[in-house]
């Protein structure tokens, strides 16, 4: 992007400040009434109440994991070092706990797990595909006893995607979401549901799969359901009452800044996608919360929605108080390869060219690792992290846009597309439409100064089909065929953009990463193998196969001075599909289990 | 002993159960068989509602898949011999379809074919009543049917 163009885009962003919607929450259901709300902190032990102070200082509690990305900076680094490079070879199963939610419903043959477990002083909180929350007592390290289950009672047929990526903790509440779009407050002590809010109407495609981000007295809620035609948004709710405070859409309405990037006669903006299905980051210094938006809809058919399709495939920096967009950066304008850029946004403080910088480090689903100034979105560097990439010849070092990007074109072609994708027929794209690094959480270790991401390696055939746009048959605008897929774990240096190390896997990594003070990086692959790697060389130091697919990220915690590594096991149909070109894995069965490891 | 029509109804209900759960057909075809499956489904499954296939042809496609398309086969031993279109793996080559996540026994394949032929093929329009019958109540999906027609 030329500097003048950047200025134009920033002007759009500024103009958008006046266009943010504030509308009431769709509905508030408060069966318990205020007086019957959460058990007072005194009853549960004040030390377990999750205060703003604790969330702001989550790094001071290495034994706990209080929010989905561990800290507001989304770095998922744990200073715990009891399990380290020397002794990780002795890591073994401490206990397992069966979670519910395997049977499917609606269009989904099974559930699957994608959540990061939270741990607060010896109690773990996880959620299954259908929104049931489990509190598990992990204090003695020998068993994981389920203390309570809060089943929200959703009809599985109304859950369009059986994915739920975790819960949030606020005061003495566990905050969870359901597929059909509710936020639920549960008493952390008793498991009683005390309040719920229907954030938006699921009949418009709206769904929820990502845990809210608690900031002060607000819940920042990112909407899902883009793939089925939602016009998505980030919405702030009052964390105590559920009242809506602000809402910012990723897709502008006609007349709003950016609306000129949605061409055609289909009113594509009304179901434009741009979902926020991974929880964002928060920078307490700037009071900005950073969220990644998903792809435009229909995902394979740009002729349905000619233009750049702002603000899809972007990072949006929103003022926490007002929801106003301070800056945005779009990675792949006019996308036709399903490059949601929702992944976790690492907030990193490091020197670049000798200067202290406040950085945003990001593993793009499009195969590039981006480094930006997180205070204003300024592009700094991007470099390829996946092994195989063919859709562009690279990222312009000045603008941060793909080198083939032409702002005057209504239909981008990049390197592999034709002006008419509908006429082009099948096209082979690398990386796969799911990445690269997809929603799989990434990590940054201040100890090594490296960012770690794990994901998919390989390519896919994509065909645009106009009849599959518009929602009458489907919302995806085409069809796909996987080629043989593997996986990788990659370490990138955010100060230079250099790929420092990479390990390749036989199967896709559909999990995520945690790095530790013990010099380790943990991840997992779809065949059910959990691995620990040296945080410099990425050499594998330990592995364990659980015999079922893994689509959830690992985390680590400590109780009574002992460190544990935990991960949820069990895949749904979408991750299993990525094994479709591995005949030897055809009969892999799903499950729904918590695995916890210790020395 | 069930009468002929009662036996047929029972077979269709068994087929519906397999279609909707074990075989995972709705992930690609949608619960109504109209192609409105999961947007992340791979093969671009077509609507079955306007299909011209006979019941036996449906059974064959379920058993053997459709070479060169995303429709998988569900007979665990398809293409190990010549039971499918007279072709084994060598004959079908690169057009060999993928295997379904779950394989089906012969009677299960016949039951699904009965269900698809009786309840889906030849019924172009998806109705709210049909949705309520399928799910047992008027779930959110049923409320979308009129909207989708528009």
Automatic annotation (TrEMBL), chain A:
The segment(s) forming the Pyrrolo-quinoline quinone repeat domain are: 65-380, 488-565
SUPFAM superfamilies of this UniProt entry? Quinoprotein alcohol dehydrogenase-like
Entry cofactors: pyrroloquinoline quinone
Q: Which residues form the signal peptide?
A: 1-27
Keywords for this protein: Oxidoreductase, Signal
Q: Which domain of life is it from?
A: Bacteria
Family, per entry: Belongs to the bacterial PQQ dehydrogenase family.
The name this protein goes by in its record: PQQ-binding-like beta-propeller repeat protein
